[in-house]
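Design a sequence for this backbone.
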């Protein structure tokens, strides 16, 4: 079955806890769903299940579906997102094994679980659910552009896959720790699995992107913040469409620019150089003012995972001085991240 959505696009209910399925993956970058769930929903994960030949690990306990069910797991999550979002034939026997063990299957892949005959047949026979995350709700309206009550923050980026989700999760958590009423609003499959609800923006027809973003972040109390997970990049030659629709529909009061120092080319588009963070700020304000004239940049989130602690701290301090706004890595925290949070809430 398709994952259910309520009228506001947030009533998704998933079977938890999870067993994370890594398939036969050897590329860590393809396992971002598993890593995201481990890092942000670790209390909902009982272990991992991998095929022979897999070299990627979340370092959770290795277990079979039957062992995971005995430990309380109720859903197997396909924790990898390979090129094309396909489910290889080599995985299917193990997925059927999970159904036989009593687990529902949750997938963020582009291919529909129910379109795979052996999975559909086993699920029907056993009374198990096949849940596709990348299925938007029906009857998404065209955006109306009406200014909504409440406050909104959107993470944007210089490229794809460099920390927009982690930044939004970190900021939402930090807001709540400061006593601010805040919700994380997920827009991608991993974020939806972490939050238990959201809107799969990259599966929405282009004409309805902004309307989907309006559904995701409805009217709220004046002091409530929706912290919205960004997608793609306004500068990306392939994925800018979803980024623009999300920007217009979110109507953010504040945005945070996410960037990975050292990255020079955009992912998947060899020859397209990364634009500067300043250019992203300029374009986001230019386009964002269409639906929120008061939009502003709250600061910058740098993914410094490739750097040592001292080098990362020094780089962010230099960049903050140069840009005139806080620069922080949410995964490192510290005074720089506190300054970013304060700037966003100011």
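Sequence:
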């Amino acid at each position: 079955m398709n994952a259910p959505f309520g009228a506001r696009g947030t009533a998704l209910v998933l079977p938890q806890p999870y067993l994370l399925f890594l398939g036969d993956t050897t590329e860590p970058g393809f396992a971002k769903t598993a890593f995201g769930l481990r890092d942000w929903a670790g209390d909902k994960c009982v272990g991992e299940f991998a095929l022979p030949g897999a070299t990627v690990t979340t370092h959770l306990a290795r277990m079979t579906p039957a062992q995971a069910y005995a430990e309380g797991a109720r859903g197997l999550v396909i924790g990898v997102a390979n090129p094309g979002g396909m489910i290889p034939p080599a995985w299917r026997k193990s997925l059927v094994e999970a159904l036989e063990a009593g687990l529902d299957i949750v997938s963020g892949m582009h291919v529909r679980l129910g379109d795979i005959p052996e999975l559909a047949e086993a699920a029907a026979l056993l009374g198990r659910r096949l849940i596709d995350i990348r299925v938007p709700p029906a009857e998404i309206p065209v955006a109306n552009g009406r200014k909504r009550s409440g406050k909104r923050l959107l993470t944007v980026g210089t490229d794809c896959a460099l920390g927009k989700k982690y930044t939004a999760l970190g900021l939402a958590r930090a807001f709540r720790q400061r006593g601010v009423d805040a919700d994380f609003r997920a827009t991608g499959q991993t974020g939806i699995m972490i939050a238990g609800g959201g809107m799969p923006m990259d599966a929405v027809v282009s004409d309805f992107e902004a309307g989907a973003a309006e559904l995701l972040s409805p009217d709220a109390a004046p002091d409530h913040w929706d912290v919205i997970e960004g997608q793609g990049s306004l500068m990306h030659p392939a994925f800018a469409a979803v980024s623009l629709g999300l920007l217009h529909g979110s109507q953010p009061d504040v945005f945070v620019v996410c960037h990975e120092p050292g990255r020079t080319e955009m992912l998947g588009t060899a020859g397209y150089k990364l634009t500067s963070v300043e250019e992203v700020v300029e374009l986001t304000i230019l386009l964002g003012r269409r639906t929120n004239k008061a939009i502003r940049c709250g600061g910058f989130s740098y993914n410094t995972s490739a750097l040592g602690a001292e080098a990362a701290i020094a780089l962010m301090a230099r960049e903050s001085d140069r840009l005139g706004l806080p620069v922080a890595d949410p995964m490192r925290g510290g005074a720089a991240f506190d300054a970013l949070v304060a700037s966003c809430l100011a």
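The chain has two domains: 18-132, 151-345.
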